[in-house]
Amino acid sequence: MKNTLIYQIDSFTTEKFKGNPAGVVLNADGLSDENMQAIAKELNNSETAFIFSPADDESDYMIRYFTPSIEVPSCGHATIAALYAKALEDNLSSCTLRIRTKIGILPVEVEKTDDDYQITMTQGSFTLSPEFDDKTTQKLLSALHLDSSDLEENCPIQIDSTGHSKVMVGIKSREKLNRLQPDMTALTALSKEIGCNGYFVFTFDSDHEDILTYGRMFAPAIGITEDPVTGNANGPLGGYLVQNQLVNYQKDYFEFNGRQGEQINRLGMVNVKVTVNNGKPELVKIKGNAVAIFKTTLL
């Protein structure tokens, strides 16, 4: 019986027990879907990443991602965690690796500095859906316990994605953001109607010059009541801000830092870079630190 090597990594932070925890199985070859789902449920993080040997010459690894209840096509913080754990285990030098995921082959940059690593993930293609109609907007506001007056007036409510879609909801107040107590049953029901499981509520209400946004992400339909720090929300938020002309940028390049996890004491930061072509987001990257919590072998 082979030894299954597991790390737990906190992503988007350098401080243990902050940021977003993810499980990482470094040698997943031979595990069945049922095995992976059981391990993800046992670790009980929002996502666990499973690293497989490459099936072809086009990629260096294949990675699959499981929440405690289902498989998802991609995950930002679990990708950061997976490559951070791989870098630690194999003592990698700075390099760019190609990972095969359910949304395609994505380059991931590993940057080694002072015996630690930062990881930069190129996300999938950016897409933006039409603005919600009034009826759907009212259902969403009711589920989030928000009033229309709480909304940031210039921010349309839309679904965007870089591989794993989220609903973008801009509000005026960080205090209001931190007091949100959504109706998870209502959000789950709405997810079935709109075909999107994640709700990212964000605000520009920041008292830090280098932090543009604060956010919270809820995805009860896939077993995630609240995700601490979400790469697949902050990344597409960058594309959303560019396409809706909500930010200024120069030379076809927009960069910002987003914070998340303040209310649940898991504060972390995502650095987002957007390459812009004719006013449209062309490429989205997220960058983050990470820290290892434990390494173990599954008995």
UniProtKB/TrEMBL annotation:
Protein name: PhzF family isomerase
Superkingdom as given in the UniProt entry: Bacteria
NCBIfam families registered for this protein in UniProt: PhzF_family (TIGR00654), PRK10281.1 (NF007625)
GO molecular function: isomerase activity
Gene3D superfamilies: Diaminopimelate Epimerase, Chain A, domain 1
Record keywords, A-Z: Isomerase
PANTHER family with a match to the protein in the record: BIOSYNTHESIS PROTEIN, PUTATIVE-RELATED (PTHR13774:SF39), PHENAZINE BIOSYNTHESIS PROTEIN (PTHR13774)
Species this protein is from: Chryseobacterium antibioticum
InterPro entries, per database record: Phenazine_PhzF-like (IPR003719)
UniProt cross-references to SUPFAM superfamilies, sorted A to Z: Diaminopimelate epimerase-like
